[in-house]
């Protein structure tokens, strides 16, 4: 049985000490004082620890079952879903016009971390619904919004995103699902979709599928794609679910993890659907939600890893094995706790220093999304657009590594399913793959985002780094531990950008061959920036005589670890990037 | 359904072009010409591909079952085990006096790779038997050898190693299993052991357990430990299994992977056992087999990863998705194969360049073990003793990473169990943990091996590197691509050794805090040395007009990739090591 404690103190530190959210001039932010966010996070943490965490192993062991065409979720899921719904947790950052609580996304993200960490497979039902809600909210007609949104805000109806087909994953241009226009303005949707998370289940009255399909006249490739609303039950005039639509679950996938979430093969056999947004502009409609969805996956990366870390730290404190080399730490016991051993510390510090940096980065990005949405801040939008593939790719790669580190602390016991550490590793593995595999994130970063707006967002990021260094340059303690390493790492990132600019014109493969390393290089610098900000905030708090000195001192020590032991990776990433395309592309296909 | 093709060509290259085994003056090596080893490897590869590989998924899906105290293996395992046994594959490098084929270990290792890659869980039954065989062969009385070895060589009886107890994993000094001496010279063994691989099953007539236990009078900690032979069925005078011994399977563990191998909780309730080797010298008896056992686990790391790689490469050639940025590679098809994309190449090259280097390193170590055993070469023994934790720790960490990379090539399909890629990842995960967790390997390396014999083996390794660089310094093509990077990386390794020497005296935690990075730093330099040797061998073959130019050219290109893109990691590892113990040990236990 695993434990989970909501990291409320740490989130509060980021929201208030680092981002000063209640001091920001943004609509909806004025209510976000320490007391208010503390109450929200404590209450959400209680649901996470008491209701969702105990169901995490149940979901893994039982999985979902397909019975006579209907998906049954694991024992206890439905009751828990009702509880989450009734507590209003599905509506946090939704539009009050449709029953939402209207809080900023930065709060939605923070609450989302706790729910995800305690039970990722469970929380995905709500997460997918939120994605579909956002799409309808952004692109739906007034009628569509009135019909679907209130029920989706409350999760009485849940939502899905139907993109992938057996032969078309990353390459959506090849998809074959067809939409035939009908005289009444609706379409008949025919085709097969795979990997549909939360595709069907027994926890809601209706499932609202958003389906990418090709309608006549749109041309080849992604240009011909439109997005359709295809409900499981057609909605009657009085707004309740009526006739069953012509769609069915073809199969449930057997996956490495997230067994508690139903991953469906969906068959559409002339199912009735309605165009969402403009005809043949389905890809654009999808992409408007992409930043939020991808940051949501980055969140899964550190959230699940944090749950794994908490268990590893607890085990390292409790498990007695061996003696400290510097003298017995537990002389009255048969052995010392694992945590006395330097290599166990190295393991735990790798985890902790990543997790706290990741949380800060994702929360900052959520705040940038708020700036972009609530204040039409184009600069914030450009920056978060640039950072999104980094958050998705880097945080999930490192989140997975972190979960593996946590599992390793348990030795052989970590390999036994009942211990729960294997589930964290198996669950988190998918975050590197779905919502755009991490290689695709790297391609998006280097191939599109880096050059967007003539490179302005990238320059803006470098300015922020420079500003941070300049602001604190007289602080002796920050200089050696934070500012110098950040400067070095940032120079590596600049050198990589320069290299791509110089070489990319000659051979486009050069930038692509270095794209994955660039994503990680960027990720390290971004976390270095976050740690510098956090260290500065901790220094201020200590200087101002904050009571919780232990917390701020541990924050500084954890940050120093990241800067000293993780940030040097930037040099290796730069060296790889500079080796160019030749080593990567040298072999003929038959030589693999 | 996964594929597996024995990499015979590559193993032959290492055995003959790189190690020139038939030119070595060692007993048993005189027969090992190209033709002979080719015949052996082709035949073993056929068993691996045709018999074992098809059972790999079966073993994963069915797992083992405990029925009325007896473990049932998955369908087809017993018939396959008979086939392996009848083919003589269990006896390859065993002593002819007991029915073995008497081949050197270097051949045993090469054959072992093929069996392990095609079905790791299955091959462990034989691997554990081989470990127990080696222990009895090294420490048994003539009577014990005559009683047990012939049956174990043929695997009519299989063997196990019983070390771990619930509260004693790495720290064996705490174990509680007791051995009470009896008047007839035997002992009664009482206690519980966990994580006993191949602890019981239905494929052999008897199971010979080797059990660590405390006999009276041995003192505290590991000093009081002895090793005992405890057969499942007591052997009668005519050498056949007779009365059932007082031991039983308490439970079968539910594991993340290797489901086809029975991992047992073993209960000994006054079971009859016989001392193996000297009283109270059980740890020493265990450790004599440790090098071989740990290199065997390192082998599992690259063997399973190679199977994963082969499937990823095949998928990347077949799966059509997206278009090459440099122009359509498959203009008549709907899309280009994945393999045109630079980041897919980067992924595959990371795998391939690691795997081939790992195979060379492990094979070289097997050869060093042969030198040590067959020619009493103390220098070889010292060197392989130093390299063993590197082979175990580095190759399994990187093997796991490689399997994850291979899974990633499949996108979402890699997460679906039926595809088989998840099994590779789940199976290989245990190699980082058992036979001494990799953190313990790092501790062994830095805490014991580095200073062994006054540091002579470490100096010997540096001499080998220098010699390699000097030998080829006039070869222009090798210089830039191989010799220079190897020199740089080797200097990083030397700097790390110097740092430990200078700092280790002041604070023992300094070396331990850097031990894991040191193991990886060493691993990279060792693979750099292997790649330089392989590149030199490939250059010679090309110069001498070898027919198979494609093979040797791809070898050079793959090596250049490793040197350019993997070896730069040494700088990061050195930077981490030099950051010392302070960042690692800064937090109080309650701050985690």
Q: Would you give an account of this structure?
A:
With 592 residues, chain A is α+β, with helices and mostly antiparallel strands. Helix content of chain A is 56%, strand content 12%. The first copy, chain A, has 19 helices and eleven strands. Chain A has helices spanning 8-18, 34-62, 77-86, 105-118, 120-139, 142-153, 282-288, 290-318, 342-375, 378-409, 421-429, 438-449, 456-471, 476-504, 508-513, 515-543, 549-566, 569-578, 582-585; strands at 65-67, 70-72, 157-162, 178-181, 187-197, 206-214, 225-231, 233-235, 241-244, 247-252, 263-276. In chain A, the strands form three sheets. In chain A, strands 3, 4, 5, 6, 7, 10 and 11 form a seven-stranded mixed sheet that branches. In chain A, helix 8 (290-318) runs antiparallel to helix 11 (421-429) and helix 16 (515-543) runs antiparallel to helix 17 (549-566). The first copy, chain A, starts with 7 loop residues before the first helix and ends in a 7-residue tail after the last helix. The mean pLDDT of chain A is 97. The interface between A and B is large, with 92 and 92 residues.
């Amino acid at each position: 049985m695993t434990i989970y404690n909501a990291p409320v103190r740490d989130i509060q530190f980021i929201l208030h000490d680092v981002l000063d959210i209640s001091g920001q001039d943004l609509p909806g932010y004025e209510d976000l004082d320490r007391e208010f966010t503390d109450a929200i996070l404590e209450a959400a943490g209680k649901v996470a620890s008491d209701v969702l965490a105990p169901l995490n192993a149940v979901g893994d062991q039982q999985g979902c079952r397909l019975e006579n065409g209907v998906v049954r979720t694991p024992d206890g899921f439905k009751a828990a879903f009702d509880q989450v719904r009734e507590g209003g947790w599905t509506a946090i950052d939704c539009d009050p016009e449709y029953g939402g609580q209207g809080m900023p996304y930065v709060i939605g993200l923070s609450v989302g971390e706790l729910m995800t960490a305690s039970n990722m497979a469970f929380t995905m039902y709500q997460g997918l619904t939120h994605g579909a809600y956002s799409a309808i909210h952004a692109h739906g007609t007034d009628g569509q919004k009135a019909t679907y949104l209130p029920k989706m805000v409350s999760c009485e109806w849940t939502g899905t995103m139907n993109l992938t087909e057996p032969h078309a994953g990353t390459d959506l241009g090849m998809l074959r699902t067809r939409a035939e226009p009908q005289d009444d303005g609706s379409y008949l949707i025919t085709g097969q979709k795979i990997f549909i998370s939360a595709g069907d289940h027994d926890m809601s009255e209706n499932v609202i599928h958003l389906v990418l399909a090709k309608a006549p006249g749109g041309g080849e490739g992604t240009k011909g794609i439109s997005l359709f609303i295809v409900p499981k039950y057609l909605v009657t005039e009085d707004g309740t679910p009526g006739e069953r639509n012509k769609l069915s679950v073809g199969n449930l996938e057997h996956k490495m993890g997230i067994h508690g979430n139903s991953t469906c093969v969906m068959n559409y056999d002339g199912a009735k659907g309605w165009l969402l947004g403009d005809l043949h502009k389905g890809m654009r409609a999808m992409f408007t939600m992409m930043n939020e969805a991808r940051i949501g996956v980055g969140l899964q990366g550190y959230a699940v890893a944090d749950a794994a870390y908490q268990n590893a730290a607890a085990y390292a404190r409790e498990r007695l094995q061996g003696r400290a080399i510097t003298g017995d730490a537990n002389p009255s016991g048969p052995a010392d706790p694992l945590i006395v051993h330097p290599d166990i510390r190295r393991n735990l510090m790798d985890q902790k220093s990543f997790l706290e940096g990741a949380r800060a980065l994702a929360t900052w990005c959520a705040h940038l999304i708020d700036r972009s949405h609530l204040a039409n801040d184009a600069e914030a939008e450009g920056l978060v657009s640039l950072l999104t593939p980094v958050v998705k790719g880097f945080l999930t790669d490192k989140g997975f590594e972190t979960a593996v580190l946590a599992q390793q602390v348990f030795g052989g016991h970590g390999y036994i399913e009942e211990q729960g550490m294997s589930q964290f590793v198996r669950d988190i593995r998918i975050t590197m793959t779905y919502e755009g595999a991490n290689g695709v994130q790297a391609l998006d970063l280097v191939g599109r985002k880096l050059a967007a707006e003539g490179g302005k967002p990238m320059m803006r990021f470098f300015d922020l780094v420079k500003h941070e260094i300049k602001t604190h340059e007289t602080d002796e303690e920050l200089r050696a531990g934070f500012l110098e390493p950040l400067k070095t790492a940032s120079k590596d990132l600049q050198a990589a950008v320069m290299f791509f600019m110089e070489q990319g014109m000659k051979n486009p493969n050069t930038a692509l061959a270095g794209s994955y390393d660039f994503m990680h290089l960027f990720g390290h610098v971004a976390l270095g920036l976050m740690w510098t900000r956090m260290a500065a905030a901790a220094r201020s708090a200590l200087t101002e005589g904050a009571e919780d000195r232990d917390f701020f001192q541990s924050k500084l020590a954890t940050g120093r670890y990241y800067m000293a032991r993780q940030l040097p990776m930037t040099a290796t990433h730069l060296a790889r990037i500079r080796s160019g395309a030749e080593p990567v592309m040298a072999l003929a296909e038959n030589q693999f």
